[in-house]
């Protein structure tokens, strides 16, 4: 009987005992990585490649330096990297989809530089790379410094879509439409860069994007603005660089354009941008560390 009583008391105490409070889960630690490590360089190159791939305006960024790199293990799900990259602007437009390693950085008087912060997730088991988020902040070279070092260098205008730049772009585009072998006319999309030089002679330097229209060059078109662009996925896009100037009382307009094949529409507002790692496993050139 005594043994039974002890058992009953023990059972009652056991059933009324409060469950222990769950221990807080320790946050996953961030490990710093050596910015000169070959894997860090590769990951940084992948991150910048994905940043450029997801942009639709402006110019491709070049990797100048790795300013900081942290990583966070996700177990079997791979590794998340938190990167701060020193970058500068190249002469390649993002529409070209070129690899940043094949693009030249701009000359001193046109230089634009800054940094990008990015979060990149690499899952080696599934061979997937995801750019979760990024933000970039770049500034142009100081005009006063440029003027002191190179007083006759053309300086970029902040108001790149002004009357002079648009007139210069349209004049250059007319030249291109008349002399190209394209079967359809192209129309102006945006002026992306504009500079003016007037110390020794008046010259306008303009860069702009163009889009293929439905108007055939077999027909005479007096007003290109009435030509509607072809539908997305059908229209070719292009990027042009032009110099518009008067030399010895003659028109000295020169223009070169690159055309890019139609792209399928993609929703760029999706927070995650993932693709197969096999497509982008390329080791970028080693940047300097800071």
UniProtKB/TrEMBL annotation:
Q: Does the keyword Ribonucleoprotein apply?
A: no
What the entry lists under InterPro entries is as follows:
Cystatin_dom, Cystatin_Fetuin_B, Cystatin_sf, Kininogen_Fetuin_HRG, Prot_inh_fetuin_CS
Q: Which GO terms describe its cellular component?
A: extracellular space
Q: What is this protein called?
A: Fetuin-B-like protein
An example of a GO molecular function for this protein is: cysteine-type endopeptidase inhibitor activity
In which compartments does the protein localize?
Answer: Secreted
Give the species this sequence originates from: Callorhinchus milii
Tell me which UniProt keywords the record has, alphabetically.
Disulfide bond, Glycoprotein, Repeat, Secreted, Signal
Q: Where is the Cystatin fetuin-B-type domain?
A: 24-137
Signal sequence span per UniProt?
Answer: 1-18
Q: Mind telling me which Gene3D superfamilies this protein's record contains? A: 3.10.450.10
